[in-house]
Amino acid sequence: MLCKSSLNLLKNTLRIEVVEKPGRFVEERNFELYSGGSRLLVLKCFNGRPPFYGRWVEVFNVVKTFQLEGTSLPFAGSDYEKTLLSFLAGELKPGETLFIEYGYDLETERLLRLGAPSVLTRLGFLLLQLGFTRFRDWYYPEGFMEGGQKLQCDKPLDGEARARHLKQLIEEVVSYTPYLTDLRGREGFRGIIVEAIKRAELITSGRLA
């Protein structure tokens, strides 16, 4: 079953507790992840239905902050987030999809609202580094049952698809970079814009190819 391998690794690495629940279909399972008795997030894992539907994972209901040894920490940028996404990326195969709600990450949300390409956000850039090369921002979910705003991230089918996706991403970043430069001096945005410009330089340099 998709996600089981990742969750076993996560439990051993970060002492996460996992509660498994049935999904809407026989191929789907929900996993609630807990730390110190508090829920961190929920995974919905669809094991596919060949030849009609591929496998996918959705990460949702992610907490903005969590308690660790009496200290409140942001989930965005934490070892929990990085380790979970790394394990999931390793388990998903070419052509498979990860959905992740981004409301827990203010930096990512603000940049997307400014129209920035997904890969220039903190979360999108992390997912790019983990092997996802095609992105879609579901700003307006199609219906109530679709959940909140999320990023859809797809793994390329092969090397040719990866090269094509990266070329498209670079074109998007180059096109948006002048707007980033204009925003750099805007009150309240300097920090996140500076980081986005750094990501843009890395992407357009070809060092991620």
What does this structure look like?
This protein is of the alpha+beta class. The chain has one domain (4-158): Aminopeptidase, CATH 3.40.630. The protein is built from 6 helices and 9 strands. Strands 1-2-3-4-7-9-8 form a 7-stranded mixed beta sheet. A two-stranded antiparallel sheet has the order 5-6. A hairpin with a 2-residue loop joins strand 5 (65-68) and strand 6. Helix 1 runs antiparallel to helix 2 (79-91) and helix 5 (159-183) runs antiparallel to helix 6.
Structural descriptors:
9 strands; 7-stranded mixed beta sheet; 209 residues; two-stranded antiparallel sheet; 6 helices; alpha+beta; globular; Aminopeptidase
The Rg value, from CA coordinates, equals: 17 Å
End-to-end CA span: 31 Å
Overall mean pLDDT score? 91
CATH class call: Alpha Beta
Question: What's the CATH architecture?
Answer: 3-Layer(aba) Sandwich
Low-confidence stretches: none
| Count of domains | 1
H and E string: HEEEEEEHEHHEEHH
Largest sheet: 7 strands, mixed
Q: How large is the count of helical segments?
A: 6
What name does CATH use for the topology?
Aminopeptidase
Strand order of the largest sheet: 1-2-3-4-7-9-8
Shape: globular
